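This is your field. Please look over both lines of this record.
***
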Amino acid sequence: MTDSPVNSLLKELIRFEKSSATAVYIQISQQIINAIQRGYLRKSTALPGTRVFGQLLKIHRNTAVAVYDELASQGWVEILPNKGTFILLPEQKTATIKATSNPIGEINTYAKTTGFPFQTSFHLASTNEFSEAKYVINDGQPDLRLHPIHEFSKWYGASMKRKTLISKWKPTAKNTHSVFENQLCNYLNATRGFHIQPNNLISTRSTEMSLYIISQVLLRPNDLVLVGNLSHYASNMIFQQSGAQIKTIPVDEQGLDVEFIRKNFTKGSISCVYVCSNRDYPTTTTLSAERRLELLQLAKAFQFAIIEDDFDYDFQFEGSAMLPMAISDANGLVIYLGKLGQSLFPSFQTGFVVAPENLISEAKNYLQMLDRQGDLIQEQMLSELIYEGEMHRLLKKNGIIYKQRRDFLCECLTQNLKDKIQFNKASGGLALWIGFSPKISLVELAKQAEQLDLFLPKTILYQDKNTCAIRFGFGHLNKDEIEIVVQKLKEAYDLVLHNI
């Protein structure tokens, strides 16, 4: 066996780890493919039989068979019964088209710009920023480190093995409500006080997708949308891309100023009002019960829709979260947006819309165009997590941790920046609204902070003649990190004051 040059070469080249997450037969297959690509194993070379190959590498014969089957399925070897296994070179499937008018060095390059005009969109310019800083303050995102990786792997694997998935991917019967739609409907009825049926509900990839679809259904060019005077940049981008005009409404300690709308607008002039009822974005102010009733009454009188975005309903630390306006809506005025699974990995989170049946029916037409199949494995897994109570368990477990982090952040802010900031201890959510006094340039604050290894993205900075504040997201920071970040923020603030 050792006299064969091929056997000696294989024994020398192939190494594998039985403890690796990658199957042994895959590791070996990849190394043989690499040897073929490098020319060590040439076309028509005969490989040893599976019994000899197994003895050579000290693997089970079934593993050796799996290696050859894998190579054959990819076209790297040909298995001839009673003759052996022989190396092949897969045919080149594509060929380079040589453009003779181009210089030799540019023949295989791809054009950087189009040869035709197209319309660019200012509203969709990316707000993403990047930094090498070790610490970051975001606008209130969950901590991925709290997510149970091994449990997710188990849940996802179990969902993948469900035999019913095949029929879901290739439906032939008339559409009925899925198990996930029924489970989500039951979950929202139990947690948010709804009395809805699946035909009042649509599930999307995210709240941004939900809002985009609703804006397509609801808005036409030059329609008027009212938002809070600081408002959410991503939502504004979606409204503007739909061609709508945006006007801002004052927000005070009771939330959106409904009386301002009554005094400054007329019946039929408003298409919709966008409001984060549970916690205003970015100020975290809750829309009071009185204001909610006023807004519902005004919507009926002025004939406009209310888009109620309840993006962080699940993160309530004191008392109970106020129930959605949508459950008090008897006139079909409220379109309710929310998130499910914020204690799960981002790829397992989903958005949803609750609205009257006729609007949901139209929204599903848009969703079918954008995302016809959806993520059936995700839906299968979420259905089981809801049914088995895991969703509730994760929310309660992580909620305790986030509350502790919020309380610790408040302590650190009071100790380090007591005379320089004002903030309210929000009853929930993963962010605090922090105002600075005396006022400073927040752009300069961000510059000084980055020099101290702390990144403040522009999307959390709010500054005008009346406002000098940041939305301080703490959910992704543990207590040690919170302490360091607050100290760096104080140091950066002091440096800016010193340079004024």
In short: The mean pLDDT is 88. The chain has three domains: 5-87, 135-145+399-499, 162-388. The longest strand covers residues 334-340.
